[in-house]
Amino acid sequence: MMLTEEDARRLVLAEIDDVRSHVTYDLQILRVESLPFGWIFYWGAVRDGQNGQRPRLGGNGPFLVDRENERLIRTATSMPIARQIEDYGRRLRREAHARSAAAKKARGSHECLTA
């Protein structure tokens, strides 16, 4: 089953709900971007009504959500998000290559058994 953006949003909101219990700010998803493998959800505190500023939160890196394998990954705030997206894309390619090699090997051993 592949996730829809709405399914992914629910996963992210559940993670944000966990953070809500530790802060007094109103937290929400601020922006969503589509990626080749899923989405990236940027989140944070809602702007303060009194001074119009958004409170700064530590550790509120965006969430990557992979639509195919339903992974929700909390990114690091210490590394550029573009690099983390690239790294995850490479990870997916390595995993796909490993699955392909394993399937090819399994087919090869099956052919030896039936020959």
Q: How would you classify the helix and strand content by structural class? A: alpha+beta
Number of domains: 1
State which percent range the strand residues make up. Answer: 15-25%
Biggest sheet statistics: 4 strands, antiparallel
Strand tally is: 4
Query: Helix and strand succession?
Result: HEEEEH
Helical percentage: 40-55%
User: How many DSSP H or I helices?
Assistant: 2
Radius of gyration: 19 Å
Provide tags for this entry.
four-stranded antiparallel beta sheet, single chain, 2 helices, 115 residues, alpha+beta, 4 strands
Short description:
The chain has helices at 5-20, 81-114; strands spanning 27-35, 38-45, 63-66, 72-74.
Descriptive overview:
- The mean pLDDT is 85.
- The radius of gyration is 19 Å and the shape is elongated.
- Strands 1-2-3-4 form a 4-stranded antiparallel β-sheet, with helices on one face.
- The chain has 115 residues and is an alpha+beta fold.
- The protein has helices spanning 5-20, 81-114, and strands spanning 27-35, 38-45, 63-66, 72-74.
- Helices cover 43% and strands 21% of the residues.
Topology:
Elements: H1 5-20, E1 27-35, E2 38-45, E3 63-66, E4 72-74, H2 81-114
Antiparallel strand pairs: 1-2, 2-3, 3-4
